[in-house]
Amino acid sequence: MLRHTCASIMLEAGESVVTLARWLGHSSPAITLGYYAHFMPEAGDKGRAVIDGLLGKQGELHASRNSPHSPQGR
């Protein structure tokens, strides 16, 4: 019980699954994910935020290239 509680708290705090798998002695992070993935509900949100940020920046770059005020757009 203490092992499961500790692992759950560590994942909720942001510890990587790979590191946690090593600490728990699992042969693969996939095993760790099988037991503890439900403790990581925000994991998709972090990745989505990174992608949104990258796409937003690229969108700004594309818009500035097509702008009549940019050297490429003239």
Biggest sheet architecture: none
Shape: elongated
Number of domains: 2
Number of strands: 0
What number is the mean pLDDT?
Answer: 77
The number of helices is 4
Strand portion:
under 5%
Unreliable spans: none
Topology pattern, helix = H, strand = E: HHHH
List the helices and strands and how they pair.
Elements: H1 2-12, H2 17-24, H3 29-36, H4 43-65
Helix pairs in contact: 2-3
Describe the structure.
This protein has 74 residues and is an all-alpha fold. The protein folds into 2 domains: 1-41; 42-74. The protein is built from 4 helices and no strands. The longest helix is centred in the C-terminal third of the chain and has 23 residues, at 43-65. The relative contact order is 0.09.
Kindly list the characteristics that best describe this protein.
elongated; mainly alpha; 2 domains; 74 residues
Short note summarizing the structure:
By secondary structure, this protein is mostly helical. The protein contains four helices and no strands.
